[in-house]
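Run folding on both entries below.
>entry_1
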Amino acid sequence: MKVVTTLSVTVTAISVVGTMLLRAVTQSGESQSYAGTHWSELNASMDRMHTAMDAIRRSGNADVDFVRLMIPHHQAAIDMAKTQLLYGKDTQMRRLAQEIVTDQQLEIELMQRWLKEHAQ
């Protein structure tokens, strides 16, 4: 578990650095289109979540169905948090976004392992 946690933290750190670089490039070039981009990205995250959730078929097992639906839900939270890291300025909200990325990625990994053991 320690290796998975270390790997997840490393991946998150790399993602944040990439996000910061992208933010610097975006801010230096396009201030007009930048203003509404965060809203478009947040909505795109929700659209991807709904598409993924709509594609899931019922298994008849409440636990399996719950986990299968929660994975895209958590992924949308991660995507939205990354958008916050890219465009947000408030320190408290950025910290929350980073915690969401880290925590929910670990939860997705846990749910994926659980599904391998329990889904037919």
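>entry_2
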Amino acid sequence: MKKVLFSFLAVLFLAACEGPVGPPGRPGPQGPPGEGVVWDVLFFEVRNSGWTNTWAFSSTPDGDFFSTVIHIPELTPDVFDYGAVMVFLEWVDNGVLRQQPLPRSLPVRGLECFENEYGVEECWEVAWTEHFDFEYDENGFLQIFFTVSDFKYMDWHPGTRHFRVVLLW
């Protein structure tokens, strides 16, 4: 029985592969146009008062972070499920508009000055890193986080920041 089955399959296999490939058939009818990628670009300004300071439990005393929540009606459940959200930090540097995608970590240097017990102002250079990140939900809310590493600011806010949000679906 095995010999008969093997012989049948061998003949079928060899008979199916004979001759050169024929010419291609005629093109079919034109299909309906596809949707393609749809996008929306939105711009937001978060003023200094728009940031909320939150203390988070952490193993270091630097558990503070700032965040802001932006409602974006265009961030629909379809965009959440089938699209993508990109957020860019925008700023002007020497008259040139610049953008950088989030997440972003930027080393920063500055001067820290205070008046000592003798009434003399003392200053020294300090360095830290600023971190921006974001998350979004299916209800159309975008939350942007700002964290400063290395030390904790007292009575300090991130200032006014500009963001560009790109929705793709």
